[in-house]
Description:
The chain is mainly alpha-helical. The chain has 8 helices and no strands.
Amino acid sequence: MLLIFLGLVLWFYPHLMKSLTPGLRARMPDKAAKGLVAVTALLSIVLMVIGYRTAEAGYVYTPPEWGKPLNNLLMLIAVAMFGVGHSKSRLRGMIRHPMFLGTGLWAVSHLLVRGDGAAVLLFGGLLFWSIVGVIVAGRSPHQPAGYTPGGLRSEVILAVITLVIYGLIVGVHFAFGLSPFS
């Protein structure tokens, strides 16, 4: 559980550095700041995964049966939101913070099917981070600078990439002996 907590701490600050400490971020060369975020994000993910896989935490609650199908739908939407953040889709112009929304949906979907303490800490912590991120980044413009929505082609590309990534995620879950559909 300690590794999950440390991973969450490492995840929080670099991702919110620009909003929480803009002066510090402004003094850092762009490559150094991006490198710091990349290294700490990777380290935090490693800590969270190892912590989650090795945690011996009891159950906090029993997940509802209806959570399983809802989990799969929310995961598909979450994957789409991650894609929206990097697309020319018209959705990018309509959704203010698609990456935070995707993370929040991902966390909620996992809380619907996992009731152990490690899951509550990990997914609850990342849900909290996504909510804080939306609040802190709330001052940012609705549409990215220079954003021009694409046409139907952009929507099709987003849909295809979403389905491929979702399929890969399902495959990884099966590879670890976890069935997201049962």
